[in-house]
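Colleagues,

For the teaching module next term, I've prepared a clean inverse folding example: a structure given as tokens, and then the sequence designed for it. I'd like students to try predicting residues themselves before seeing the answer, so please don't circulate the second half yet.
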């Protein structure tokens, strides 16, 4: 029978997570009342029952402890939720002209802007009244203002209040608002130089300034001595956690090979740092008294120093916490299980920030580590080559397989793809990362004082990176290297994990009931997919998407989908998730069969006919008035082509007006108001989101 006593945090952490998960559905006061009742109940058990009888009711004591931990998770989550504060910016209803905020991050270079985070302190109303307020804002500064960027610690006066982040307006689109909400951010603002002024510059050099400056200097050194563009991006990503120089082709190749984890500074990189420091400081462990303490302090300090150098990314913080627990546990001569240590580190992280539970990185990293710890020895035992180096390679392959087993359901759910040959390149990629990281760090260190040596090591690092890239690209080019556009629902993801757990239990306990349970879970997954496919096969619809650059339309019949508009990165971000979720085969209208999709242009108007319905798309100013108005079912106006709805009377008879997202803000407001006055049936895509019209 499994003994829980050595694994207390394996019991505590899941119930804390359960409390975090249901915190949004249960009242804060109710959770406190439940916690108080549990405390009173447990106290009553301990006070009234004799010691001899108390042990017989330990089961009910466990139930009370479980309820207490769930209640604590609810309370801690709602305490962490800043929107519950009465002074939060979300709860501010007065009109304001300015707000005062402090910069709480260094500017981060993006493709077109610099991103920085602000912490609100006060707002100034139109009546020049000042109110204390709280809340975090993500702000974007144009690249043109790079000479006058906000810096960490500055206090600034900003014109106008920020905008609330909006929910996604396309079906299946990534919920960026929710993503930032889990980080305590609910507002955003574009900040050109004329919208803000510094009222108190940061004159004290903080550790964040020092770390940012050091990171910039390290980046300059790597870019100086690693010259190939592809090698530069990977060197910066692996050594400093900076992905701004990564080329799209490189990221695609690593994703197809199942090796993207190497390009994100995470547990692998922190583990390599720990192995290096532990090896160099091993002689300290032989000292009689202070050796172990010095070894522990230096190892932990170096890990957190590296975390600071990489900008304290969440993945590095998690890894640093996990390794810190392991190092301190060893120093205290605790024979605690690695499972309990990992669960304890997760408990601490979730206590500090409960919303980490919703982080994809948090979920994948802990699942991968638990999978490696439990499954790797069992997989490695399948085959034990006599040749030492082959055995070592097989051990690393077993690590890759174990991590993939533990994470593939979640990877399918979030990323909709599976790298078929993940096991082929991972041995070389992991070994390469274990060499590239120390090479990169040594190159940086030598670059400060010994440029000649740094140049030689930089060249060696560049060759190594290009060699790994070559191997990864070979794997990407293999037939069927990646299964793409896989969609599974959240319930199917849970069922897939049940399948994995039941199969592991089958091999462990050798009982057929686990095989039956796994088959049942697979049957439920298949049933869910059949229901999904049945509903999709019946769909006949068209969709007008919310995309600001140009108009995008979908015309769907079952699993066949015709797309109107140029397919680009914007379309891939906003529209592709809906295609994946539906499981449709998409082709452009121009490439489709003409008989399936008749269309024509007349008088500057594009007419599209689908399933007996006629759509008119107006993207240019109307001219050459037709002899008589054109009868259409749906009229789509875009690109500010229509200024006044009155002029449409001479051109169209239509049943519904669709205002496209390519129109300007003022045009959308004007056309919406006119449609209301005229009692026209209309849909405003910028205000209401994408429109899907079912034609079946």
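(Answer key — instructors only)
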């Amino acid at each position: 029978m499994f003994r829980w006593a050595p694994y207390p945090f394996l019991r505590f952490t899941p119930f804390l997570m359960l409390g975090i998960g249901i915190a949004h559905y249960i009242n804060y006061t109710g959770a406190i009342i439940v916690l108080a009742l549990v405390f009173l109940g447990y106290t009553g058990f301990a006070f009234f029952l004799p010691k001899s009888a108390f042990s017989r009711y330990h089961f009910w004591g466990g139930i009370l402890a479980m309820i207490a931990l769930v209640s604590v998770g609810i309370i801690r989550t709602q305490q962490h939720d800043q929107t519950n504060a009465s002074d939060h910016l979300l709860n501010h209803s007065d009109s304001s002209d300015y707000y005062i905020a402090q910069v709480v991050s260094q500017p981060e270079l993006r493709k077109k802007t610099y991103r920085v985070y602000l912490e609100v302190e006060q707002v100034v109303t139109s009546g020049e009244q000042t109110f204390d307020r709280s809340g975090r804002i993500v702000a974007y500064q144009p690249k043109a203002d790079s000479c006058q960027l906000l810096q960490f610690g500055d206090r600034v006066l900003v014109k106008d209040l920020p905008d609330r982040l909006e929910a996604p307006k396309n079906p299946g689109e990534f919920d960026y608002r929710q993503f930032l909400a889990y980080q305590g951010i609910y507002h955003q603002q574009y900040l050109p130089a004329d919208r803000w002024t510094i009222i108190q510059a940061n004159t004290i050099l903080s550790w964040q300034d020092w770390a940012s400056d050091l990171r910039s200097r390290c980046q300059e050194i790597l870019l100086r001595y690693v010259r190939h563009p592809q090698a530069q991006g990977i060197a910066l990503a692996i050594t400093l956690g900076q992905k701004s120089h990564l080329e799209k082709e490189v990221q695609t190749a690593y994703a197809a090979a199942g090796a993207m984890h190497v390009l994100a500074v995470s547990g692998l990189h922190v583990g390599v740092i720990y192995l290096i420091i532990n090896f160099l400081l091993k002689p300290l462990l032989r000292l009689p008294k202070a050796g172990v303490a010095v070894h522990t302090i230096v190892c932990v300090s170096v890990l957190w120093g590296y975390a600071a150098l990489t900008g304290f990314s969440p993945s590095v913080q998690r890894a640093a916490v996990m390794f810190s627990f392991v190092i301190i546990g060893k120093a205290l001569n605790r024979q605690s299980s690695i499972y309990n240590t990992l669960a304890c580190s997760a408990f601490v992280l979730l206590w500090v920030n409960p919303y980490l539970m919703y982080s994809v990185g948090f979920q994948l990293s802990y699942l991968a580590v638990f999978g490696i710890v439990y499954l790797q020895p069992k997989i490695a035992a399948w085959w034990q080559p006599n040749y030492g180096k082959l055995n070592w390679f097989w051990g690393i392959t077993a690590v890759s397989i174990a991590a993939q087993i533990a994470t593939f359901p979640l990877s399918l759910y979030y990323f909709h793809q599976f790298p078929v040959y993940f096991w082929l390149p991972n041995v070389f990629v992991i070994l390469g990362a274990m060499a590239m990281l120390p090479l990169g760090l040594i190159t940086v260190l030598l670059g400060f004082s010994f440029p000649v040596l740094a140049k030689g090591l930089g060249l060696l690092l560049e060759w190594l990176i290009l060699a790994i890239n070559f191997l990864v690209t070979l794997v990407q080019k293999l037939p069927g290297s990646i299964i793409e556009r896989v969609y599974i629902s959240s319930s199917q993801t849970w069922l897939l994990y049940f399948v994995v757990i039941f199969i592991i239990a089958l091999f462990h306990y050798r009982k057929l009931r686990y095989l039956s349970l796994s088959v049942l879970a697979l049957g439920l997954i298949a049933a869910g997919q059949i229901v999904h496919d049945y509903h999709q096969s019946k769909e006949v619809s068209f969709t007008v998407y919310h995309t600001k650059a140009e108009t995008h339309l979908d015309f769907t019949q079952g699993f066949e989908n015709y797309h109107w508009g140029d397919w680009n990165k914007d379309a891939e971000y906003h529209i592709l998730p809906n295609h994946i979720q539906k499981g449709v085969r998409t082709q452009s209208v121009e490439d489709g069969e003409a008989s399936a999709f008749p269309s024509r242009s007349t008088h500057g108007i594009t007419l599209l006919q689908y399933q007996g319905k006629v759509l008119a798309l107006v993207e240019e100013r109307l001219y050459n008035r037709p002899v008589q108005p054109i009868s259409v079912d749906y009229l789509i106006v875009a690109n500010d082509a229509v200024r006044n709805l009155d002029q449409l009377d001479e051109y169209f008879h239509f049943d519904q007006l669709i205002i496209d997202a390519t129109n300007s803000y003022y045009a959308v407001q004007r056309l919406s108001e006119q449609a209301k006055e005229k009692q026209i049936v209309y849909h405003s895509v910028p205000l209401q989101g994408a429109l899907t019209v079912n034609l079946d």
